[in-house]
Amino acid sequence: MKASGGRSGAVGKGSRGILSGGRKLGYLIFLWTFQAEMMQRSCFMNQNAWFPPGMKEKMAATGEKQIYVVTGGSGFLGKHLVQMILDQEPNLAEVRVFDLHLDESMQDLDRVTLIQGDITNPDDVKAAVRGSHVVIHTASLVDVWGRVAPEKISAVNVGGTQNVIDACVSEGTQYLVYTSSMEVVGPNIKGVPFYRGNEDTRYEVIHKEPYPISKAKAEKLVIEANGRLMENGKRLHTCALRPTGIYGRNHPLMKEFYEQGLRTKRCMVRLIPASVEHGRVYVGNVAWMHLLVARKIQECPTVIGGQVYFCYDNSPYKSYEDFNMEFLRPCGFSLLGSRPLVPYFLLYFIALFNAFLQWLLKPFCTYAPIFNPYTLAVASTTFTVETDKAQRNFGYQPRYTWEESRNSTVKWLQEMDAQRQMGKNALAKVERTGNQEQKDASNGNQP
Question: Which SUPFAM superfamilies is this protein grouped with (predicted)?
Answer without folding.
Answer: NAD(P)-binding Rossmann-fold domains
